[in-house]
Design goal:
90 residues; alpha+beta; Pemi-like Protein 1, Chain: D; 2 domains; two-stranded antiparallel sheet; 3 helices; 13% strand; elongated
Length: 90
């Protein structure tokens, strides 16, 4: 069942997130949220704190170090992949 909440936008474009939504997102003062546009809908999500990202990125960084993959290797791979856009793969 959908729930609806109303908030007013200030002259500076600011919005107060209703308390029920702040509780549902588990956000408090100083936290960040992200707005994701999906067609004509907008989703609001809590941004994960940096330590959560560190936990996510650690095994990737460790694998890169084990296999000797450098920052330049990653940049080159991205440039190569972007160059392949619109081309059929053979």
């Amino acid at each position: 069942m959908d729930e609806f909440y109303i908030a007013r936008i200030t002259t500076k474009g600011q919005v107060t997130v209703p308390v029920e939504l702040r509780k549902a997102l588990d956000v408090k003062e100083g936290d960040y949220i992200i707005f994701e546009k999906r067609g004509s809908r907008i989703e609001i999500k809590k941004v994960l704190p940096p330590n959560d990202f560190e936990d996510f990125a650690r095994p990737i960084r460790e694998r890169f170090q084990r296999e000797g993959i450098t920052h330049d290797d990653v940049e080159d791979a991205i440039k190569w992949a972007r160059g392949m856009q619109g081309q059929s793969k053979k």
